[in-house]
Specification:
two-stranded antiparallel sheet, 2 strands, mainly alpha
Length: about 170
């Protein structure tokens, strides 16, 4: 089910809408309307990269590690380079974090816990090693006291890739 916010008589749903609703109330939007639209595009790009492309790659691992490796090392760097062009640093829009930074860290953390951390620890593979600007955003958010104080699990245990997903990486 999509996230839902009820605000008075209004009901908002879908991730991007709920994120923007919360960001506006928390003062986490970029300064201009044009930048806010571009920020929504970045959120959609992050969803496309992580939930569509990376999700597809992980679900296709049963085709064998070779197929995954070829797709991961061919497609992912191109998508991430395109995304990184918009990062001004240290956050997406410069010195102040916006909802894009928090969303990027959230979705990256989710896939790290579900898949990438084990891929790196057991196989020495870091698919994001060349993405300094993106990782800089993630590190900047992770260094916030509010991030460090969070005790909510990043994902449910049943979302973490099982052993069979990694067996194909060995092939």
């Amino acid at each position: 089910a999509p996230p839902v916010v009820q605000y008075g008589s209004l009901l908002y749903s879908q991730p991007i809408v709920v994120i923007l609703w919360a960001a506006r109330r928390a003062g986490l939007t970029p300064h201009s309307a044009d930048d806010e639209l571009k920020a929504i595009q970045y959120i959609a790009d992050l969803i496309d990269i992580f939930e569509v492309e990376i999700g597809r790659l992980i679900s296709n691992m049963n085709k064998g590690g070779k197929v995954f490796k070829e797709q991961a090392f061919n497609i992912l760097p191109k998508l991430m380079r395109t995304l990184e062009r918009g990062i001004k640093g240290p956050f997406w829009y410069g010195d102040k974090p916006t909802f894009v930074d928090f969303f990027a860290t959230n979705i990256f953390d989710f896939y790290c816990v579900c898949f990438f951390n084990r891929l790196e620890s057991e196989f020495g593979v870091n698919l994001f090693i060349a993405n300094d600007k993106f990782l800089g955003v993630v590190d900047a958010i992770r260094s916030l006291d509010s991030y460090k104080a969070n005790t909510i699990p990043i994902c449910r245990e049943d979302f973490v890739a099982n052993d069979s997903a990694y067996l194909s990486w060995k092939n």
